[in-house]
Amino acid sequence: MNIDKYNEAIMNCRFCFMCRHLSAIGNVRFTEVDTPRIRAAMLYGLRTGTNSFDDEDFVDALYRQDLSACCVHHCVNHYDENGLALAARADVVEAGKAPEAVKKLAAKFVKSVGWKAEGTGDIAWFLDETTAADKAVVAATKKLFAAAKVSPKVIPGGSIGKALKVLGFLPEAKAAAEQFAAFLKAEGVKTLLVSNPAAASALKQDYPEFGVKLPCEVKCVAGFVVQSKVKFAKAAGEVYALADDFLRNYLGCGCMDKLLAAVKAVNKPFGTNDEETYCCGEGAIVLDKLHPELVKKLAEYVAARADDPKKDKIVVASAYTKRVLVKYGKLNVRFLPVT
Ligand code: SF4
């Protein structure tokens, strides 16, 4: 089983409650089942035969995890309870026990695989569907490219495999990755810029895991802007930059901090601690499709921690987090500190 690769997490997390406060879903449902300890205990039970994927409540718990990877990031031993959860979903799918809603979503992503290229050159910008849906983010990113004096070829299109991997559909995710890598090769792309941290994680982490080689270097837009030494006319002022699930917990990327420094932003501490996630299920990619009611609760939880919800300038690194914090949290949210 896929979960066998995460034996350390199963054996250790099932007795540990140290990171329960970092379980975003547990924090809004007030349920122990939504913590790494209980998920690990349930997966241990799967191996010993006292639990089974026939139990719909068990499978539902696996599919409502926020997958922020905060727990593994802050765990003193870095036991990969997040990787365990993803592996468990793959096992659910392999066992033919994926819930109908999950299967429907996965089929939609398989169908969406496909891209086109607009423009010329060997620098390209992957305009994922989540980012493309936010016209303000698209316009601001184009302004940044102009300031950096680049005019990348734009590659809009569908799934590159991340959502499929997160839903547990590994062969389909790998097939999407292979197709995207072949597309980039055919287009002669040497540098690929990505706005969505989830796409960066897919390209930098999932693709090597699948054994898929990319023909290009991958850079996040924030890092590219810093490297390009774009000059900004005025300082960004006081902001509350929320640590991004993928950039901080998955990729260990410090681009956002560098960008904040480059624009002379005064980054104020948000909430009661800087450990937990405020990204409302960004790591789970499609949590707002499977469980909008939970994403609403997550956004309200974040909003309740803002000093002045209407005025505080909240800065995030993903269009997903911006969308749900604006929609459900009614917060004043910016994509990157320069938009
Ligand atoms: S990830 Fe670390 S802190 Fe969290 S339950 Fe597992 S062992 Fe404990």
Description:
With 339 residues, this protein is of the alpha/beta class. It has three domains: 2-98, no CATH class; 112-226, Rossmann fold (3-Layer(aba) Sandwich); 233-335. It is built from 18 helices and eight strands. The strands form two sheets. It has a four-stranded parallel beta sheet with strand order 2-1-3-4. A four-stranded parallel beta sheet has the order 6-5-7-8. Helix 18 links the parallel strand 7 (314-316) and strand 8. It is globular.
What's the tally of helices?
18
- How is the largest sheet built, in terms of strand order? 2-1-3-4
Overall 3D shape: globular
Tell me the number of structural domains.
3
Percent helix among the residues? 40-55%
Reconstruct the topology from this structure.
Layout: H1 7-13, H2 24-29, H3 36-48, H4 56-63, H5 70-74, H6 81-94, H7 100-112, E1 123-127, H8 129-132, H9 135-147, E2 153-156, H10 162-167, H11 170-186, E3 191-194, H12 197-210, E4 217-220, H13 221-227, E5 237-241, H14 245-250, H15 255-262, E6 265-267, H16 287-290, H17 292-303, E7 314-316, H18 319-327, E8 333-335
Helix pairs in contact: 1-3, 3-6, 13-15, 17-18
Bound molecules: iron/sulfur cluster (SF4).
Comma- or semicolon-separated keywords:
single chain, 339 residues, alpha/beta, Rossmann fold, 3 domains, 4-stranded parallel beta sheet, 18 helices, 8 strands, 9% strand, binds iron/sulfur cluster
